[in-house]
Design brief:
The protein contains 13 helices and 16 strands. With 491 residues, it is of the alpha+beta class. It has one domain. Strands 3, 4, 7, 8, 10, 14, 15 and 16 form an 8-stranded antiparallel sheet that branches. β5 and β6 form a beta hairpin.
Amino acid sequence: MKARLTRSALGVALLCLACGAQASSHREAPFITTVPKVDATDFYMFNSYESGRDGYVTLIANYQPLQDGYGGPNYFSMDANALYEIHIDNVGDAKEHLSFQFRFKNKLSNSGAGTALNIGGKMVDIPLIQSGAVSSVKDANLQVNESYTLTVVRGDRRSGTAQMVAHATSGATTFDKPVDNIGKKTIADYAAYAAKHVYPITIPGCATPAKVFVGQRQDPFAVNLGTIFDLVNAPVSVITDPALINAVPNTIGDKNVTTLALEVHKDCLKASATGDDVIGGWTTASLRQGRLLDPKPGSGHQTSEKAGGAWVQVSRLGMPLVNEVVVGLKDKDKFNSSKPKDDAQFADYVTHPTLPALLEIALALPNTAPTNFPRNDLVTTFLTGIKGVNQQKTVTASEMLRLNTAIPAVPFAQQNRLGIVGNILAAGNDNAGYPNGRRPKDDVVDISLVAVMGGLCVANGDTDKLGFGAACKPSAVPLGATSFKLHDGVD
């Protein structure tokens, strides 16, 4: 499984409609299935590899999974009663010290009156979000205009110092979001239209300008969800044969997500100019504690709900796949509401993972799960970072992406789809990929399969040469070198 990408980092994240990033979290917890607008599908954090963007870090949070391209007439606006955030821990205590907050507004045209047509002498509102072709920002043919504000908070996300982010040229603090890709008759060149919504921004406290984009992107998550969650309904001979990585059809290749993307200089993300080069990051979404349905809503846009009270976190995503296939079902909602600093309560799911045992059952391969309990190799890989690569100088075991901003970015064409794992197994030269942050090209499903089934312990050898612990050795991995070949059958 790998993203179908051919462009550089920022171009991929912000400008390419047909490109995107692998999605790892679709409807992963019971409650989040009831509020899809705040369902985080993916979080990415990587050193930008566009030409001329040395020193920048790209942050991408994707929301609203499985959007259909034909999802009219309302399409997929963001929740105006929600708070979407990207958090950075730059000291290693598993707490946010920098947060970027996105808030959305959905407003009807004509100062809230909407778009009406003269029908037999009466002005009657139209039922669609557009009345004609759309090509520009705030196009007159749009009945619904979606905008957002961006706030940077230093310190605690709720009690820290909050400042508005502004357009670097105009000074405006409200940004327009492109309407979703309705179709070619409405928007002849969606890529060009979306590109008009990439904004240069000034972040208070940061010396270097940044960029922001929010809009619909194609979700190229190359996976057959039916096969995977039907007890891995694929022959063992397929998922252990590297020549068959395209054997299973990608069932969601035509789905979309909504992307929140920032490109920020690393000096803005670090605690100080001389601070730790390794940063941690994750995304969350929150809803108001009180949400009441109005039995007699008035005219307007989204008037059936009244929301108020404190923010309540309902979605969380850092490392991919964690809440989807690691955390137990009964704790999935709990995990989505938790903070990294409290992750000790979920430690058993990593030190004693059930996924290897489930794969034994699903594939009828008894006695193939690794036996090195507790699985400190997984703790290192997913909860603390790898020493000398992406482990912070002071580290608190917790689930988040960790990125070493000092490791040079690798050009797209030279990137190893297996990231650091590929580097370990193939003696390559790419330490800039997952789990050192996460790039769009990183094949996180295959990487995770190799790791969870003990591939890193085979590579660690009997002398702990990679530092995963003495118990992490080949004899603890019944699959042996076969664990290196595991894949999900979709590329």
